[in-house]
Write a structure and sequence with these properties.
Oligomer: single chain
Number of domains: 1
Order of helices and strands: EEEEE
Structural class: mainly beta
Shape: globular
Distance between the termini: 36 Å
């Protein structure tokens, strides 16, 4: 069974938006917690990693 690879985006801001790409889901704004340095979209599971 083949699973879909999770997309990871490196970002420099703690507030990010995600719409799943090409309107894949409703646009959501996510905030990266300082304790984790990343956040995962609850719709598409895209991971945003803080690099600063």
């Amino acid at each position: 069974m083949c699973s879909k690879a999770v997309e990871v985006e490196k970002v420099t801001e703690i507030k990010v938006k995600c719409d799943g790409g090409s309107g894949g889901h409703p646009r959501v704004w996510l905030q990266i917690p300082q304790t984790k340095k990343f956040v995962v979209c609850p719709y598409c599971e895209k991971k945003f990693e803080l690099i600063k």
